[in-house]
Amino acid sequence: MAVFFPFERLNSIENKLSRLNAKGLVEPDTFAEASKTIQETRLQLERAAAVRVEEGKAVAATEQQERSATAAKDTFLSKHLKVEHISDEVVVIIELGS
Fold it and tell me: Tens digits of per-residue pLDDT, 5-44?
């Protein structure tokens, strides 16, 4: 939702500017410059949003890799080691045969 607000705001400003221009209340050069600024701002926002999406994908991929690595480690250890808790202070680790 927060990502769309700046785009909605730009659309609102652009619409108001167009209405004022249609009524002849804005100089042509001023309208052209303002329109260009709005379009440039929109492109910057689109690039920033795309970067955020890619960052999110990278974080999700890293988290998935970490989960997979943990699962692989746990599977390996459960196949090759047996852990016995003798007491709160003593833990015996037994290596299992392959």
Answer: 888 999 999 999 999 999 999 999 999 999 999 999 999 9
Number of structural domains, the chain? Answer: 1
Question: To which residue do tokens 């690039």 refer?
Answer: 47
pTM greater than 0.85: no
List all residues 6 or more positions away from 82 whose beta carbon is below 8 Å from its beta carbon: 93, 94, 96
Host domain of residue 63: 4-95
